[in-house]
## 1
Amino acid sequence: MASTLSVLLHCTLLVLLLAQPTHSSTIQKPKDATAEQKPRSSSSHTYIIQTNHLAKPSQFATLERWYSSMVATHSPRAAMNSSSRLLHTYGTVMHGFAVRLTEEESRRMSSNPGVSGVYEDAPYFTKTTRSPGFIGLHEELGAWPESEFGDGIVIGFVDTGIWPERASFNDSGLGPVRSSWKGKCVDAEGFNASLCNNKLVGAKAFIAEHGGALTPRDKVGHGTHVSGTAAGSKVRGASLSGFSRGTAWGVAPRARMAIYKACAGFICRASSIAAAIDAAVSDGVDVLSLSLGGPASPLHEDVVAIATFGAQRRGVFVVLAGGNSGPNASSVVNVAPWMTTVGAATTDRVFPAKLLLGNGDVLTGQSLYTLKARAALTSAVPLVSSPCGMDDLKPEKVMGKMMVCSKSAWRWRGMSIIHGPPGDVSVDDHEWFRDAVVAEPFTLPGLVLGYAAGKKLFAYISSVPYPVASFSFSCDTVTGQNRAPMVAGFSSRGPSKFVPEILKPDVVAPGVNILAAWSGESEFNIVSGTSMACPHVAGVAALIKKRHGDWTPAMVRSAIMTTATTLDNFGKPILDNGVGKDGRGATYATPLVAGAGFVLPALAVDPGLVYDAGTQDYIGFLCSLNYTVNQVRRFVPETTSCPTTLLGGVANLNHPSMVVIFRAGSRVRTLTRTLTKVSEDPETYTAEFAAPEGVTVAVTPRTLEFRHKKEKLSYTVEFRSDVKPAGAWDFGHIIWSNKNHHQVRSPVAFNWQS
Ligand SMILES: *[C@@H]1O[C@H](CO)[C@@H](O)[C@H](O)[C@H]1NC(C)=O
Ligand SMILES: *[C@@H]1O[C@H](CO)[C@@H](O)[C@H](O)[C@H]1NC(C)=O
Ligand SMILES: *[C@@H]1O[C@H](CO)[C@@H](O)[C@H](O)[C@H]1NC(C)=O
Ligand SMILES: *[C@@H]1O[C@H](CO)[C@@H](O)[C@H](O)[C@H]1NC(C)=O
Ligand SMILES: *[C@@H]1O[C@H](CO)[C@@H](O)[C@H](O)[C@H]1NC(C)=O
């Protein structure tokens, strides 16, 4: 496996703009990383050695002794070298260890009968005032009071660490963490364990800062932001230099947080991520939030998929960011069905700023320009359209001018800021970012324009010999006027490359211009990415867990998915802000873009019915993917054979969404699903469905009568299709409805293959 994980942060801070050559959300792999990924046989490299602990020979008293003996046998050199002994051992969500080996030694290691997998430790790169209110959480009624604000539920964060002194982590009014909790805070450089309290109940580090200490302190802000979003305490008067002023809340403001640092700077390592997940589950977290991801790889080669499988098997709900590589199709990552995969959507909050052109036209963009921002109307200066390369931003070229850069020229923006042109206009240069949704924290007057406004700007520049413009900043935060949510252009889309018959992402949540706690000098920051969407769902899961302590992770996921909305605040279908050029054409967000829709916690705590799944279902799923028994054992070590392939294949996993692939010669597909009743009173549900033209649907039975709680009833759906062009996708849904009290909705994606 040679993959790259990134912290899925869409927007970079100015300080990072100097260092991060990126215009896209995902921080790209530096060029020299490829060399690091392909170790020459003589040089050593970290490998994750997964073992089947059931195969431990009895002569070894402990697993550690067995592992040391393996290292001594296959790499005497490593065994001698104290600095390259076992870097991590794993014993909760998976078994094994991490060690430095040469490529040749790693090959020998993989032939050891007790070893079930050897994975190269790829360098994984690191990729709210309004949002709780916008997803329908109110202090006085509904999901918040009903679930006691998630009180006592522990959310674990595998991320860049924490800045514990922030007001969002104040434990005022919180009782002690439950006595079964095994986590703790470690003393480390720059991090005194006494910084922890009844809110921050654990902090450990599994990766050292570059050239520095092993400390849970967050040097970059990402982990602090993510944990504040999911579980931050109420902070009055929160804002970023006046923007988004209001009360900042996490989604589950009384949940506790435990921090497992596996990313230093923006780089995470698979070996550290697995160690972090292992420790979190062993400590007893209820929910795990991972705002990171790599390129999609087959599940049995993906250490994060294997480790999170172990976590869900122990009852931990795991949520991950879906990636920031949209709007390209098949860009979604973290696609295993036991993961809850989250895409990013806007909220109804915008930070408008205007560009006044010399011809009188007014173009509206967005800006978080903070200095002298109050009602500042700058004077008209010459406009220069520039490639914005390093050479173009020399002081003599930019002084006294307003630079117009395309967003792909972001890499040099830091330079322009240092040299100080009077203005900086960024234009989204891809048609698919029709609206400038991501606001930027400029330190000089600046704003971001969408593609359409950018076209008008360039037309003006080329129509007159001396184009001029000025800015108008109001420092206003406007809410409730724009259509929202809208799926962000950068949010990664399905279908999943390796498991196309599982619909991903599962849901979308607020991930654009999110205000939450930050590291260092800044108490708060406003940033964007599927990294920010992921902890919103972690918070919702904490609220559900508080109400329903005995629910499996699959039940929690089902509740979130089947109650998600496909409509926006105007009552119209949620729009896709990143329609690609692949001919799909629709401007509404299809299930490949938004999954089941936008999360609504008020409904998710009371879904009526759920689609449950557990280890046996997932074994059937993995066997249906035609994995060998040895590959299935990486997930379930006690597997001896593959007797249970799912009847009808992968698509028959009891997932809350459906993918129906019609192949030539099989224009009829039948899927089976099982619903579990989770509400108290007897209820009768009837099926309603929608299907595209040329597809007929038959649900059997049409009515399900549930008498008691936990009762399970199954139904089948037969889909018949006309022939359609190979590669085409179309969409529908199935809703089990109980006189409008409960609506259990599943999106259905149809695909035609030759
Ligand atoms: C011991 O391991 C360290 C770190 O992997 C490496 O830098 C060093 O060269 C190794 N020493 C020997 C004698 O192999
Ligand atoms: C935590 O919040 C309480 C109540 O608002 C306040 O009195 C206290 O000073 C805060 N503690 C810290 C460390 O900021
Ligand atoms: C941690 O903080 C406590 C209380 O402020 C102090 O007594 C202790 O010396 C500190 N420990 C370290 C290692 O700095
Ligand atoms: C998206 O697809 C386009 C065209 O195929 C390609 O040029 C671009 O690099 C892709 N973007 C990402 C983020 O993969
Ligand atoms: C697994 O193998 C069977 C038999 O060859 C084939 O029909 C099926 O499509 C394969 N499934 C997948 C997911 O590749």
## 2
Amino acid sequence: MRSLVRSSVAVFGAGALTLLPSIAIAAENNLKSNDFVGISFWLISMALVASTVFFFIERDRVNAKWKTSLTVSGLVTLVAAVHYFYMRDVWVTTGETPTVYRYIDWLITVPLLMVEFFLILAAITKVPTGVFWRLLVGTTLMLVFGYLGEAKYIPANIGFFVGTFFWLVVLWEIFKGEASRISSAEASPAVQSAFKLMRNIVTFGWAIYPIGYYLGYMSSGGVDANTLNIIYNLADVLNKIAFGLIIWHVAVTESEA
Ligand SMILES: *C/C=C(C)/C=C/C=C(C)/C=C/C1=C(C)CCCC1(C)C
């Protein structure tokens, strides 16, 4: 009961904080009924707030060793929700792509998502810290080069190729490296199936971003800013909310087993 009160206070405090910046701006610049990018920013920001509340409250249902995984899922959606409020306002007010907010969001949430692989394995066995560092550093460098390319500090194609190289480093770790070996040798069936699902999200769900980047910056018949933002937004639903739900599911299954 006490922890329920504690997590509810945290959730509502966080929710109130995230809402503050946007109330003022949104009141002056109304969302237009045909601004589908703006509408997608709005819908997804609400879904992220709801997911945050859900993950934090559901922590009470799972065993101690699974709580950190749910905390991290909730942090991912909380950080993303706050950035979505800002991105929505930039978009609705100026019609410009909020690249810098997008990347600050990714820079925090993507390494956290990666750490989830380490955490679900660490909940069941001893995992060398090298696994943690390879996942963390690989994703960070992937994003740094993507940002340098999108913000035009380096040519778009160099940002793309170097960023993709580091994504492949991460994929190698979870398909062929130590993380993968530990999962198949030591994990329970529920953890193994969560690991595989998460791995597929990092392959197919994450592929949506470099495809969007390629279409937005590198191909001549590519897509406009509207389409690129919609692509990134929908990808976030899969890669942040659905990914968190997979972890929630394995945490509940293992706790009740
Ligand atoms: C919640 C946000 C997520 C999961 C964002 C993931 C972003 C990527 C997987 C971005 C990948 C990119 C490359 C592989 C190449 C360079 C360009 C990027 C940064 C778009």
